[in-house]
Structure formats: C-alpha cells, structure tokens
Amino acid sequence: MRMIAVALVLLLASLTTVADSSLYERGKAYFYGDGVERSYSKALLAFEQAAKNKDLDAMTALGVMYIEGAGVNQDDARGIEYLAKAADEAHPKAQYYLGAMYYLGIGVERDLKKAFGLIRLSALQNYLDAQHNLAEMYEKGEGTEKNPEEAKKWYNDAAKSGNESGQYVLGFEYLEQGDFKNAFKWFERSAEQGHVESQYQLGLLYEYGKGVKKGYDNSVQWYKLAAAYDHIEAVYRLGLLYETGLGVSQNYVKAMEYYLRALEMGHLDAYAKLANLYEYGKGVALSKSKAYEYYIAAARKGHIGSQFKVSTMYKQGIGTKKDLEKSKYWLEQIELGRQSAQ
Known about the structure:
Layout: H1 23-32, H2 40-52, H3 56-68, H4 76-88, H5 92-104, H6 112-124, H7 128-140, H8 148-160, H9 164-176, H10 180-191, H11 196-208, H12 216-227, H13 232-244, H14 252-264, H15 268-280, H16 288-300, H17 304-316, H18 324-341
C-alpha cells in the first residue's frame, strides 16, 4: 500500500513574518527554516503552545514529529495521542495519519478495520492521499470487503483532485481498454508530478505513437526521467533507442552503458543485447567469446532467444568449442520451456 505514513508532509501555506503569524505558522516557519533560522526546539514550543489552544493543525504536526522523531525523541505513543485528539475533532490529515498508523501497526496494534474507517473519514473530506489509499483498500479488501466499483470511484476522485497515483491508475485503466488518448492524458498529468511508472508509460506511448503523435525525442525525455529513479524497463529502452538512433544520435557506447545498467538490475534481454554488440563489434572490439559469455549467462536464466543462439554457437564452434551434445541440450531446453509455458 502506498502509505507514506511517517513522512513529514506538513502542509505549507504562505507564511507571514514570524512576528505576526499564528503560533502554528510560526512553528512551521521554524521547522522549515522559512524566513528564519531553522530551529526544531522553537518549532516544537510553538506547536505545543498552539496545541494547548486546540489548534488541530498543531496537534497533527506534533503527532507526526513524535512518530518520525524529527527534532524530538521518537515517541510513537505520544505521537498517536496527538493524532487521536485531532482525529476526534475530524481533522482530515490527522485521520489519515492515524489510519496509516493502524494500517502499519506503528504505536498501536495493527487493525485494518480501524485503518479503513479513519482513512475513509479523511477521504470524505477530500484529503488526496486518503482518497487514493481508500481506493487501494477497497481494491484489495483490506479492512473491508473487496469492492471494485468503490475502488474505481475513489481512484477517479483522487485522480481528478490531482493525486498522481490515482491519475496513474486511471491512465492504466484507459490503457487496458485501448483508449490511448485518455491514457496519455492521465499518464501525462501523473508524470508531470514525478510519478515514475507514469513517466515510463508516457515514454512508451510516444515511442509507439499511441494516443499521441509518435515522437522518439519525447520518449527519450520521459525514459530518462524514469531511468533516473532506476526504472529497469526505461533504462533498457534507452539502450534500444541509442543503439538504433531513434530520438537521439546513434551511439553504441551509450547503448552499452544502458544495457549494462539494465543487466545489473536483472533485465534478461539486456544480456542478449550486450552479446549482440560484442558479436558484431558495435561500439566495442568484436569478440565472439565475449558474446558467448553473455548469451550463455542469459540462456542459463531461461532466455529463449539466447538459448537458441548458444545452441547455434556450440553447433558451429563460434565463440566456444564445438560441442554437438551441448547444442542439442540447449535446443531441448527451449522445448521444455515452451511446454512448461503452455
């Protein structure tokens, strides 16, 4: 579940000067060092004073500070106490965070029903993260019965309210329906907010011209953003684009860099692509033996194309000693793989 339960996401309103701001805003200013020197101790004092005056935002801030251990000694029980007080007064963010604590079992015994109830109350007050997580709980049947229709409703609400994860889910629904135009629209909104999987999906839509005019340069742009967060498929596809020169100047060395990176992340096709570069001397010195090393590594991991290639190399003695028995063995592995896949 996409619960960022203990992250400090204290909502920032525009701050006035510390001298004439409310106690809560003063606490935020000190906490973030916004216009003043950062001071957790002064932030804590301001939040505590505001909380004594029944400021629900301050209570919530204190709850998160104690659970996170930000500027104070971590104290889950005390954090839960502050969150519960604010949640009892229907503070949406407090309801969400308290629900997250029950979901994760932090400071309280794990209780999915209580988590669901609190997150639902928060979602009904239009708290974005709560809307998305409520959708997930309906989808998975966590703390409630599975309800695909309710899940879809809340994903849609979250998406339309600007939640990037909800926008991704909505985009993927349209993608599965073959409605590429709407898929593109929602992936784009999500990707622009930094959602990595949406960035990758947007790259694919641009690469294949689905829902948008084909644009390899745009594909490269979005793949690079996703690759910066180690999205394995984005890394691999950048290798493909550099090898073929689509959207970028053809560059075998760059292609190899991306293939190596994808290989290190466990991408099987990257083994075969690296083998091919060595086999034909693209960007590297031609080396049949090096090509064989990558092909055999992929073959042993079940990559069918590489198994066929290894069989051929053994049969013809390319990159390794000729061995008809081993050639036959790898052909048999291909057949076994096909049978098990049926």
